[in-house]
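RECORD TYPE: inverse folding
INPUT: structure tokens
STRUCTURE:
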């Protein structure tokens, strides 16, 4: 959708080029809708044409909103290899449990052998 907004020439000249003004207008509108809760993170990213959450994070951080959506934690986690390792370990444990090889911390075969004694 294209929307035309009449702006007096003397103000428009102060706002910058036509292309710059269009981008600033969509950013301002999208940010206000986001603040009001009418756009999600993913929708805001789509409206603004950002390919990654990092771009959205930087956009919001530049506007003083980084803590509003918790992306500071996202940014820190992306650099925290310990949290990735913990997640990988949990996935491996779940996969072993789902395949029937473990029961919690116990190996199923060992439990069966123990019960036969």
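DESIGNED SEQUENCE:
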């Amino acid at each position: 959708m294209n929307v035309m907004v009449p702006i007096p020439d003397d103000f428009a000249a102060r706002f910058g080029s036509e292309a710059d003004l269009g981008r600033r207008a969509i950013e301002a509108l999208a940010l206000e809708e986001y603040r009001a809760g009418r756009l999600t993170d993913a929708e805001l990213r789509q409206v603004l044409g950002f390919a990654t959450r990092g771009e959205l994070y930087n956009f919001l951080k530049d506007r003083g909103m980084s803590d509003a959506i918790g992306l500071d934690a996202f940014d820190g986690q992306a650099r925290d290899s310990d949290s990735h390792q913990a997640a990988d370990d949990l996935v491996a444990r779940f996969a072993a449990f789902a395949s029937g090889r473990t029961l919690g911390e116990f190996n199923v075969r060992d439990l069966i052998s123990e019960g036969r004694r």
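NOTES: Residues 18-35 form the longest helix (18 residues).
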